[in-house]
Amino acid sequence: MRETLLVARRELATYLNTTWGWVILAMVLLIDGLLFNAFALTEAPRYSADVLEDFFFFSSGTTMIAGVLLSMRLIAEERQSGTLVLLETAPVTEAQIILGKFLGAFGFLAVITLATVYMPILIEVNGKIGWEQIATGYLGLLGLGASAVAIGTFGSALARNQLSAAVIGAVMLVMMLLGWLLARITESPISDVLAYGALFDRHFQPFMRGRVNTESIVFYTTVVFAFLMMATHVLQSRRQA
Amino acid sequence: MIEVQSLSRFYGTHRAVDDVTFSVGENTVVGFLGLNGAGKTTTLKVIAGLLTPSAGSVRIDGVDMTSASVDFRKRIGFLPETPPLYTEMTVTDFLMHVGQLRGMTRDQVNERLPDVISRCQLEGQEQRVIAELSHGFRKRVGIAQAIIHRPKLVILDEPISGLDPVQIVEMRKVVQNLATESTVLVSSHILGEISQTCNRILVLVDGRLVADGSEAELAARFNTGHALLLTLTGSEDAVKAFFEGRDDVATWSVDRVEAGRVRARVDLKTDTREAMVADLVKAGLGLRHLEDAQDELEEIFMDLTRGGKA
After folding, report:
1. Contact between chains at A86 and B88 (C-beta distance less than 8 A)
2. A10–B84 C-beta distance less than 8 A
3. What span, in angstroms and rounded, lies between the C-alpha atoms of B145 and B22?
4. Which CATH number fits domain B222-306: 3.20.20.70, 1.50.10.20, 3.30.2130.10, 3.30.70.3190?
5. For residue range B222-267, what is the model confidence (pLDDT) as tens digits?
6. Comparing C-alpha atoms, which of B147, B139, B183, B206 is closest to residue B31?
7. Helix or strand holding residue B229 (H, E)
8. Which CATH architecture has domain B2-213?
């Protein structure tokens, strides 16, 4: 665990000490703020719960994009610059490397996500929503974000450079988002599997409405575990290449 | 201490390393010599644990790289040709991070740092950001990361590539200094470097280990020729007559004649240069200059890579 935390600490420090991390933070806050102002805060009277639901809907998109952009560099950048050798020759397992990288990127994404909390607070102050509803929405955002970072980490492990990593990560993410569309044009049991595998439609929407969905927590945990396992396998296979 | 047994490594169907076996004791600097593509880097990468062997084994103090890979890697320090550095960090922060990654505590790294800084001649650079350092200093930081955890084996792949002559001399001292606490494997295709830095030389050709020993041992074993370059005063005809009449001369040629001086190359069958010089003087041919036509190591290397005496 010590080695994992060392890797995670370095990743977190890299985001905090480089322009890239701050650019992503600024972009997420800017886009979330603009969308919140333009679409959630309309002049027509609305229920606070609906405004909050809209906020989490917008935030889910920026969180997933930020997850892919943060994770694209995790392995691909080290491979490009030749520093992956440092980790591969250290007495650290591939699983520890991948988990540490994931935790570093997810930790920074969590900071970005939680930095948007002033918007739900504004709704709470001026309207009528419960703190539990806010907390539940953020739990869903973190689950979705963790999945995006894990998918991006796998893309980064596969790619030779950061751009390819971002493309691979984004393609996989979009495929997992569009599962519900495919589910509509296929028949059971394939449609059931596709609907269950969709990242957003079935699993995130309950969180937006303030409902903690255990099935979705298990789903996000499984997605994170599966993609990190695959990324670990990719790193291990490099030694056999 | 380090035992490499029947090591082979394939890339697809291409055999990059072919049944290499050797062992090395402590505090030795061993040079891997070979042409580009001979398998030096692949062999070092396998020993460093970056690649798994297709066949054979590598052990350090009995710890096998395949069955105890994490334990094995604790005993290794590796510097690839391009130093792996987090350039946004300062030298001290980087070494602290690498030390901790290799199982040391902060206190242990702090205790170790002055020695590593001194060994790698990095005094005064400790708080500088790595991105601001020259190529030579970056190489030294690369060595520092390889030795921070006191590994049993330090592997340096082409440590002098890209360095200027002053930096090469300094790097040579750094490498020799490492042998006081570790065994060092150095790869290079520069003969002079291997000759001056290493106690023992391993020559790889097409992935096979074709020679193993000190420079003197290799010279004796492969019975290198004794090629000399001579500058003599006298006529060209007198010089030709002198060499034609000698039994100890295998081949000879006149390279240049100018201003009463003849420059010739002579390959002796055995090292009879003293007798030949005495005879030259007796024959009235003034000896103005005499030198070895080739370094011994270069001659051995050329023979081995041509496959002539392997």
Report:
1. no
2. no
3. 26
4. 3.30.70.3190
5. 655 677 888 988 888 888 888 888 888 888 888 777 878 888 888 8
6. B183
7. strand B226-233
8. 3-Layer(aba) Sandwich (3.40)
